[in-house]
Amino acid sequence: MARRRQSVIEDVLDAAAKLPWWLGVLLAIGTYFVFRWLAVPEPATPGSVRPPSAVVGSSIARALALAGQFLMPLVFLGGAAISAFQGAKRKRVVDLMKREPEWDGESPQPAASEQTLNPGLDLYSEWKEAGLGGYEPEAVDTSRWSLELLKALEWKRFEYVCAGYFEELGFRAKTVRAGPDGGVDIHLYTEGAEHPGIIVQCKAWKSRKVGVNLIRELFGVMSADKVQEGIFATTGTYSSDATQFAIGKNIHLINGEDILTKLQALPPHRQQSLLKFATEGDFMTPTCPSCGIKMAFRAPKAGGNPFWGCRNYPRCKTILQVSKGQ
Hints:
The chain is an alpha/beta fold. The chain is 43% helix and 14% strand. It has helices spanning 8-17, 21-38, 52-90, 92-98, 124-129, 147-152, 155-168, 212-225, 240-246, 256-264, 268-278; strands at 115-117, 130-131, 172-175, 186-189, 198-203, 209-210, 229-234, 237-238, 251-254, 296-300, 307-309, 319-322. The chain has a five-stranded antiparallel β-sheet with strand order 1-12-11-10-2.
């Protein structure tokens, strides 16, 4: 079925919606006064006789101007309203972050070192004896986007940055909330769509390579949910078998360098908006996958490996163990 051709009014509305909202308001005011001036009848000149065609043409022009002085300002105001709505929508990621939403990704990775998720592991005896000292986050330049900064982001903040980036591209991004994510962290919707067109899995891994098993899992979800396109985003890299498996399956593998390039390709003010969100508050301490709150770094006094533990312990037993040699 052929797509319906838009009217001139619809074209103007679309163009106005892409402008800053305040510019749409100024255009609405300006067009009102321009069309009002055009609608004023020309003063009659004594002794002059105008041909009928000129009289008819002038009357039609004034009638169009009379209608235009109200219609066109309304169109520009409508475009300004759409622009303001879309601007507020782009800020939704930041608002969600401030409310500490509850959602998680599998095997989340804090920036300080590579971690292994151990839900349900009982470390109560170690927890009682563990102190809070010993964790000092590495200094990182937050004035610009860099691979170092991307790898410093804790797992939840990284997922929200990815969601924010896709919203900058015009998608509606919906993140998965608390509980097992089933191989998906973000659902991407086109305008007006009820079913996601793309699903995204994120891994904030500092040095580990994403293996083929996780790519197979994403492909399985795509097939089960009848989604045609998948994206896997990581701050690290991929194994050769993972890269080979993704070929021909409409799965896009994005590594840390790719993400950095994409962020730097955004308009400067969009880059800064996401950068401000990414580095707002504590962006390095990992979030508990089950409770959605910042975790506590624990160093057992009797020796052993330090770990991140949920502050709701023992009610929540989710921990992140710090790997050796990181």
